[in-house]
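Hey all, sorry for the wall of text incoming. These are the two entities for the joint prediction.
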Amino acid sequence: MIRIYDVVRRIPRRQRTRCWTWVLSGTIGLSGCSMSKPPTDTLAKAELGVSAARDARADELSPVDLKIAREKLEKAKQAMAAKRYDDARRLAESSQVDAELAEAKSEAEIVRRAADDVQRRADALPTEAERESRKPLTAVPNQE
Amino acid sequence: MRFNAIALAPPHTRMPLLLLAALAIGCGTVRHPALENARDLYQKARQDPVVVRHAATALDRAGQALEEADRLWAREKDVTEVEHLAYIVAKRVEIARVTAQRRLAADEIRQIRSARP
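and here's what came out:
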């Protein structure tokens, strides 16, 4: 049985040092890379985000953002199935934030419309001052 | 110091050490355009009194995402991940702006109602 040490010993000393330096540099250089786990939670959050946006009427009030969120969620699921976990996590995180934006836009639009509505009705009602100024006009014919 | 160490190293180890040194130097200086764009968007929102007043929490979340992107860029220079985080920052800033608009409209409703009961 050949032992690693026997193989290493056969390499000239100079070349051996070079080999070790390469191995060490390579290890330091690649230490940034790491194995990733399936992003199950992130995917679930994205799914919840898209549902919340749909519940906030984003289909009608912020369709573009919701469409982007849905497409990314689909791609995240495909990446997950293909075991491309880093891609899946990024797509799911991205989808979640798009869904949150769709939801926020829809809610803002709903409140905006409500504010406009309240303003319109307030404008239609006569103010206190207007009611006061009309009194003599209606009272004058009765007095005559 | 780094260059001295390389000059002192045995000739046959210089090449890998030089490559590693180049990697280390490259890591310190480069700015990522998407990250800088995200920072710009965030700082503009920070200077907008409406956003700061009405959507402080949402703006903080954008700030946290920006810090994470900065940390990652300084530490790992992972372009894909930093571009992804820059996108998250941009969207979080937009969420803060929209949230501020919603609260502004809600305030309007309250004001109209209190003015004309």
